[in-house]
What does this fold into?
Amino acid sequence: MPDFLTGPFGDGPAAEPLWVLVRLLGALVFGGLVALIYRRTRSASDVAPSFTATLVLLAVLIAMVTQVIGDNVARAFSLVGALSIVRFRTVVRDTQDTAYVIFAVAVGMAVGANNPWVAVAGIAVVGLAAVLMRSRPAGGDGKGIPFLLHVRVGLGQDVNALLSGPLNAHVTNRRLISMATARQGMAIEVSYRVTLRDESADDLVRTLNRIDGVQSVTLQSADSTEAQG
It folds into this structure.
């Protein structure tokens, strides 16, 4: 590099710019593989586009940090202190997502530390494990599709007694997500994560709409398309 560029940074780590670029590009590729494994082994409803992008960027950033640290212990502690001020408010929805974050960090560290074969082996082994242990839909036969069901009922209604029968008839699995008041306390809105039986989504919506006391029904699939009543 020209002297006017290397002079101000003479005390920095001795690293060839070309190899730095190659390692960062390698981290980009490996981070993309981590994101690809994540997308292929998780259900569509659990995949957030921003999270897959985060995995790729995280691998590149960790590779940068690893190259900055090098073998300098003092620099390592300085960076830990500097990065500790970063706070994230987004809650990880699933413990498996945390594992993928660690996966991206480990891959980035391996590439940044000039150990690409560690990243290759890790992607192969973790990818295989993720495929073997990928979660199946709750329907049991592998054909169930997860939906988010939001039902609003009038105040004073027994929600469980009102909805249990129709849900048992049309849903193979359901999990209560939230329950809250609506319309200034005049109604109750309950949300479930459900897996439908062989019937169509329209059947469930029509059945729930016929129930006295049900004010509105929203069934939202993984791709955010909605059937409303």
Notes: The chain has two domains: 3-132, 146-228. The chain has eight helices and five strands.
